[in-house]
């Protein structure tokens, strides 16, 4: 019993020590993304150029593909969804736009519907235009590769 308590105490001590060490390391490295003091107004956000026609690869299998065209003029609200006039079948054939995949028609109970389901109606919640933005912080991100 005594040994058990000792073991737990040692494990706890180690864990706490690690958390403290980790916190110090993070504090030394982390820099706020905001470069002006909190009391000063934000500087205007950068304006990025949409990368039209370029096709960015997906970084992992489940990633919603990036949009290879501008989207800010397409209205999405209760009455209209202008994305659908090109991406919904049969318009997708006429517009030569990729058809929305069947997963967009499945409701939260797994039942297939005939129209785009509410959980995928607001397209720009998941799909954003490709822009020439630089990474916010330097990083070594590598796309996931299957079979590794
Ligand atoms: C006028 C027709 C039109 C409208 C409206 C439109 N798109 Fe597109 N979209 C296209 C075409 C054409 C392509 C293929 C372009 C290419 O591959 O360069 C495309 C490509 C895409 C892709 C890439 C699919 C893939 O498999 O890589 C996504 C995602 C997308 N659009 C989302 C949207 C969203 C979200 C909206 C609304 C905000 C929208 N589109 C509105 C015509 C349209
Ligand atoms: C909840 C997130 C989500 C929303 C909302 C959403 N999508 Fe997607 N979309 C995805 C994901 C994830 C994929 C990739 C997997 C797949 O094919 O379903 C995808 C794939 C696509 C593709 C490529 C299909 C293919 O076969 O290459 C198109 C085009 C597309 N979506 C258009 C749209 C449009 C238009 C809307 C709005 C009506 C929309 N999406 C709403 C997540 C979303």
Topology:
Blueprint: H1 2-29, H2 84-87, H3 91-95
One heme C (HEC) binds next to helix 2.
CATH superfamily label of the largest domain: Flavocytochrome C3, Chain A
- Rg from C-alpha positions? 24 Å
Structural class: mainly alpha
Identify low-pLDDT runs: none
Family: Belongs to the NapB family.
Subunit structure: Component of the periplasmic nitrate reductase NapAB complex composed of NapA and NapB.
Main location: periplasm
GO molecular function: metal ion binding
Q: Can you walk me through this structure?
A:
The chain is mostly helical. It folds into 2 domains: 1-32; 48-133, Flavocytochrome C3, Chain A, domain 2 (Orthogonal Bundle), CATH 1.10.1130.10. The chain has 3 helices and no strands. It starts with a helix and ends in a 53-residue tail after the last helix. The structure holds heme C (2 copies). The site of one heme C (HEC) has 19 residues, from helix 2.
What characteristics describe this protein?
148 residues; Flavocytochrome C3, Chain A, domain 2; metal-binding; iron; single chain; Periplasmic nitrate reductase, electron transfer subunit; mainly alpha; binds heme C; 3 helices
Short description:
The protein folds into two domains: 1-32; 48-133, Flavocytochrome C3, Chain A, domain 2. The chain contains three helices and no strands. With 148 residues, the chain is mainly α.
